[in-house]
Design a protein that fits this description.
Number of strands: 4
Order of helices and strands: HEEEE
Number of helices: 1
Low-confidence stretches: none
Strand order of the largest sheet: 1-2-3-4
Shape: elongated
Structural class: mainly beta
Largest sheet: 4 strands, antiparallel
Distance between the termini: 20 Å
Strand content: over 45%
Mean pLDDT: 93
Length: 57
């Protein structure tokens, strides 16, 4: 999934990955020198975590 698509996800959106699906209640974005990590907390206790490697030119 492109990073731009991940940035468009908002709280209240329905998302899914593999067998996990639900409504986004909180979004965290963590950045390191190597990657961006998107943590989508869903209603209840589930989370979807997506890591995107940074493009180095």
């Amino acid at each position: 999934m492109p990073t731009s698509s991940l940035l468009e996800i908002k709280t209240g959106d329905q998302i899914s990955k593999d067998s996990i699906h639900g409504t986004v209640s909180k979004i965290e974005i963590q950045e390191t020198d190597e990657f961006l990590q998107f943590i989508f907390s869903l209603e209840g206790t589930q989370q979807i975590v997506v890591r995107k490697l940074k493009q180095v030119c």
